[in-house]
Amino acid sequence: MNIVLLSGGSGKRLWPLSNEIRSKQFIRLFKTDHDAYESMVQRVYRQIKTVDSQATVTIATSKAQVSAIHNQLGEKVGICMEPCRRDTFPAVALAAAYLTDVQGIDPQETVVVCPVDPYVEDDYFEMLKSLSDQAGKGEANLVLMGIEPTYPSEKYGYIIPKSAEQISFVDTFKEKPSADVAKEYISKGALWNGGVFAFKLQYVLDKAHELIDFTDYHDLYEKYETLTGISFDYAVVEKEKKIQVMRFGGQWKDLGTWNTLTEAMPDAVIGKGILNDNCEGVNIINEMDVPVLAMGLHDVVISASPAGILVSDKEQSSYIKPYVDSIVQQVMFAEKSWGSYQVIDVEDSSMTIKVTLNAGHSMNYHSHKNRDEVWVVLSGTGKTIVDGREKCVQSGDVVTMRAGCRHTVIADTELKMIEVQLGEAISVEDKQKYELRVEEK
Amino acid sequence: MNIVLLSGGSGKRLWPLSNEIRSKQFIRLFKTDHDAYESMVQRVYRQIKTVDSQATVTIATSKAQVSAIHNQLGEKVGICMEPCRRDTFPAVALAAAYLTDVQGIDPQETVVVCPVDPYVEDDYFEMLKSLSDQAGKGEANLVLMGIEPTYPSEKYGYIIPKSAEQISFVDTFKEKPSADVAKEYISKGALWNGGVFAFKLQYVLDKAHELIDFTDYHDLYEKYETLTGISFDYAVVEKEKKIQVMRFGGQWKDLGTWNTLTEAMPDAVIGKGILNDNCEGVNIINEMDVPVLAMGLHDVVISASPAGILVSDKEQSSYIKPYVDSIVQQVMFAEKSWGSYQVIDVEDSSMTIKVTLNAGHSMNYHSHKNRDEVWVVLSGTGKTIVDGREKCVQSGDVVTMRAGCRHTVIADTELKMIEVQLGEAISVEDKQKYELRVEEK
Known about the structure:
2 copies of one chain form a homodimer. In chain A, strand 20 and strand 21 form a beta hairpin. With 441 residues, chain A is an alpha+beta fold. The first copy, chain A, is globular. A 6-stranded antiparallel beta sheet of chain A has the order 20-21-22-29-24-27. In chain A, helix 3 packs across helix 6. Helix content of chain A is 22%, strand content 36%. Chain A contains 10 helices and 30 strands. At the A-B interface, strand 17, strand 18, strand 19, helix 10 and strand 21 of A face strand 17, strand 18, strand 19, helix 10 and strand 21 of B. Strand 17 of chain A pairs parallel with strand 19 of chain B.
C-alpha cells in the first residue's frame, strides 16, 4: 500500500502544548504497550506498519514540521515537503509528482491519502487497504471513505451514497450543515467525509496537469509558491462522476480540541500532577518539570508547557483560538531533527535556552549577525567546531562565540547544554548556514 | 511606640508562592499607591511608619527569613533573630532582652507585640498606640487587643471581658471552640484573640527571668536551642490576673489561605494572565514569565511559580497542606539580602539558576566542595573575586570556578547572571563561607 499522510495544522487549539512549530499531531499523549507515550503521528505510523509492514508511507507537510517528523519517526520516512501552504489540491498534486518522479512509483499503482491525525484502531488501516484495492479495480476514479456518523455533527461535510451497501457510488456531497439538517442527512444514510480517498496515481497526475502547468516534481516544487490555494474536495472530488464510497463503522475520533483529546487520554494525569479526591473529570497534561496540584475541580483540563498554562472548563476549551491569537510570544520549545531546545530565561538583551542533541547528531554549521553565544556543557560528550577549530567537549566545558563566528556542535553521546544568547536583537531569523568543508569535519 | 512584629510561618498553605524560605508575608500581592505590588510585611511596615513615623520596629524571626526581610525592608529595620524556632514565649523573651541590651530601650518603656501578617487598615495601628499608652498607665500588667468577631469562627481563641466597655479587665480565656460554642461566647460579648498585646518591658523581662535562667540577651541567644517551646499565651497571658482588653472593631483579616487571601486582592489577575468572559470569581497569581489562560471557571484560584502550579476550588484551598507535604522538592526561588535567585533547570548532575544581585550588593565569599560553577553575565556591571583575583565583568563575560575555589561577585549596577552548577552531589548545604581579606576587597 502506498499511503500519503497529510500533516498540517498550526496547532493553536491545543495551546500551550502546540504552537506554530509543533502541531497537535506531535504531542506525546498516547500510551504505548511499553508504558511510554507516543504522539498521533507516531501512533498512526506504528499502526500502518502493523497492518502492512511493506507500506510506503509519505508524509506531505510544511518545512516547519520536517524536523519534528524526523525526530519522531526517524530519517527513513518519506517526506514530501511543501515549500509553503497552498491547501490540499496542490499538496496532493505535489505528493503525486513526488511519488512518481522521486520515489519511482508506477502511475498505475494506487495511492491512499489520509490525514495524519485521526484517533483510530487498526481496523481503520485495514479499511485503507480495502480502499486501495477497490481503487485498483478501476470501477471508479476515486474511492472515498465514508464514516458512519455517531451524532449529527456540524463539523464535517457529508457524503450521500446512492445505496446503503458497503461500497456504493456517491449521489452527492453536502457542506457542513446545521445539527437539524445533519439529522435529516443521517436519516437518508449520509456518511461523514473524513478526507480519506484512494486513486490510481495516474488519475491525480492527469488532474494536476489539467489544472497546473508543470513538467515534473522539481518544476512543480519550484512554482509551488505561485499556485492558488484550493482544496482537493473542491477541485476534484465534488466534480468527479465516477466516484465510490466505502462505509467505515469502526472507531474514528477527530481529536482537535482539549475536550475531545482528553476523552482519548489513557491516564488522567500525564507528567507531574496531583488530583485531590474532590476532582472529577479533570485531566492534567504537564510538560514542565514542576508539579501541578488540582483541588476540587470538575470537568477541567489543565495543560502546562514552557509556553504557558491553560486551565479550562472542558466544554469551553473549544473556544480557545481567539485567546491564543491574543498571546504574542516567541516559540518557547521545539523538536529539531537533531534533538530539541527549550527557552528557560528571557531578558531584554539575552535569552537562555537548554539544548539537547541526540547521540550522533549535530546542528547546522551556522553563525549569527547580531548576537554572541556561550555554551556550557551539562552532560554528554561531543565536539564543537568554531571558525573551523575543533574541540572535544564534556560536562563543564565552556565555549564562547562572538557574533559572526561560525559554529556547530556534534554529539557523540546525548549531549545537553545551556546556551546563553547575548545581544540587542535576538531572533530565530538571525542565522546564516554554511557547508562544513571536509577538512573541518 | 516600640513594636515587635512576630514573623513566623513555614508557608505551606500558600504553595506554590510560599515555601520553607518564603513565608506568606513576603509574597507581593497588595497594590501600593503607585501601582506596584507590596508584600504583607512591606504593607504593615509602611502602615506603622504612616501612623507613627518615630516607631521603633523590631522583627522577631528565624534565620531563614532574615535575607528576605532585608531585601524587602532595607538594612535599617531591627531584627531579633531566633537561632531556631521555640514558639512565642521564648521569642518574646528574646525580643525583650534584645530591646533592652542591644537597642538600649529603658525597661520602663512600653512595647507592643503583634503578628506581622494581619491584613488591616491604618486604624489598627492607631489602636496599637492606644494599647501602648494604656499599658504605660500601669493599671494592668498586660493589655490585649480584642477583635470584635464578625462570625462564630472555630479558628481563633476567645477573650471574655468583664464588661462591654472599650477597655475592660479580662474575665477568662477560651480555647478555639466549635461554631456552636463560639456563638454562645459571642452572645456573652467575647472577642477574638488576635495575638496582640502591650506591656512594660520590665514586666516581660521579669517573666523571662522567672522561667529561664539567663543573664542577658547574648546569654539567652546562646542557650536558645536548649529552651522548651511554649506559647506566650500559655506561659504568661492566661496566668496573669492584672490583664485588660481593648476592643477593636475595624477591619482585621487573617489571610492564611488562598481563599481568604484572594478576597483581599485588589486585582483578579496579578502577573501574566487572561480570564475569559465565562470566568467568575477566578484569581490568577502568576510569578512565571509565561501566561496563564483561564476559561469557564468559577471560584477558582490559580497560582504559578517556579515551584509549581496550583489550581484549586477556593473553598478546597484551605485543605492544601497534606498535598504540599507530599511534594518533595528543593527550594526553586528565594530572596536573599543581596538580591534573588531562581532555579531554571535541574538535571541529574547539574543545576542552572538565574541570579539577580542588587546594585551595590555582593554574595558571601564562599566555596563549594562538590561542585564546579560557571557564571555567564547577562546584564549589568560588577567585579568577581575568584581565589583572591579580581576581575571586572559585564554582559557576556564568563567566569569558571572549580570545586574548592573561593569566589564572590560584587554588583556595581544591578547584575544578572546565569550560574551553572556541575557535580554529582549539588546541595545548598555545600557552602563554606570566608572573610574577604582587605587586600581582596
